[in-house]
Amino acid sequence: MQRFREIFLLWAIVFLPGYFSAGSPGGASFLDSPQGLLAVAIKQTVFALLVIHLLDVQGEAEFLRSPWKVWSGKTLLGAGAIALSLLALAALLRALTVSSGQPFSPKSASSPLITAPLTTIPLLTGTLLAVAYGEEIFFRAYLLIRLNQAGLSSMPALLISATLFALTHQWQGPEAVFFAWISGIFLGSVWILRPGIHHLALGHAAYNALALLIPAIGTATV
After folding, report:
1. In the chain, where does DSSP find H-type helix?
2. How many CB atoms lie within 10 A of CB 204?
3. Cα–Cα distance for residue pair 95/44, rounded to 1 Å
4. How far is CA 113 from each of CA 47, 125, 126, rounded to the nearest angstrom?
5. For this UniProt entry, which segments traverse the membrane (predicted)?
6. Are the beta carbons of 134 and 44 closer than 8 angstroms?
7. 44-58, 143-157, 172-186, 205-219: segment of lowest average pLDDT
8. N or C: which end of the chain has fewer CB within 10 A?
9. The whole model's pTM is what?
């Protein structure tokens, strides 16, 4: 029960701000201003450090000391494969939506990354990385470790992790929630097969950057 209480409290920290406001740490609303970018970057960094601390207390933060160094060729290759896989999933979902007869109406006709001042690009990059690391450390590493410790096997733990991940994207609409759920299944499977945080977080951040660059899938950031 203590495991589930800790999980619920941490998830509430992620979920409730997005539920009671127009945006969430993983959405595009933080692009409105440099102050918004900085606030999200700080919040996500502090949250990630909190989760790492909780894992490290019990000696479970080994994933941060992966033999895959952050900028090694293998890590970057894995991150690229993850980003392209998420991009393919987003494109497939968009194609299925259009083919089913539903109207195609992206929320924005222009890319936030293209219209953003050049001076904000470094801050935006840092924020995307902070969001990706925060979400991967919590939804993949922490949740899957804790749910396994609570007695769940990999498949139920994966489904719960993906569902909680999807719910944090509810403000973006049903299509984004479904895409986040599918993405959660995919990213969680990568974690199970290849534990380690850097390839997941870098791939996650790279996909979100691509999604913001391409208005057609810009509403499907994860």
Report:
1. 2-19, 34-57, 73-99, 112-115, 121-135, 143-149, 154-167, 174-193, 198-213
2. 29
3. 32
4. 25, 10, 13
5. 38-55, 76-96, 116-138, 150-170, 176-193, 200-220
6. yes
7. 205-219
8. N
9. 0.85
Neighbour-count burial of 66, counting CB atoms closer than 10 A to its CB (0-12 exposed, 13-18 middle, 19+ buried)? middle
C-alpha span between 52 and 30 (Å, rounded):
24
On the CB side of 169, CA atoms within 13 Å amount to 26
Please report, rounded to a whole number, the percentage of residues in the chain having pLDDT higher than 70.
77
Enter the tokens of residue 114. 């293209």
Query: In sequence order, which residues have a C-beta less than 8 Å from that of residue 99 and are 6 or more positions away?
Result: none
Give residue 158's identity as a one-letter amino acid code: L
Structure tokens at 136: 């991967």
What burial letters (b/e) apply to 161-197, b meaning 16+ CB within 10 Å? bbebbbbbbebbeebbbebbbbbbbbbbebbeeeebb
- Give pLDDT tens digits for 65-75: 654 567 788 89
Let me know if 116 is exposed, middle or buried by CB neighbors in 10 A (0-12, 13-18, 19+).
middle
* Residue whose entry in the numeric block shows the structure tokens 């409105």: 32
Place of tokens 């913001």: 212
pLDDT in tens, 5-38: 888 888 888 777 766 654 444 445 556 678 888 9
What are the structure tokens assigned to 190, written together?
Answer: 């990568």
* 194: helix, strand or coil: coil
Tracing tokens 């509403």 back to the chain, one arrives at: 219
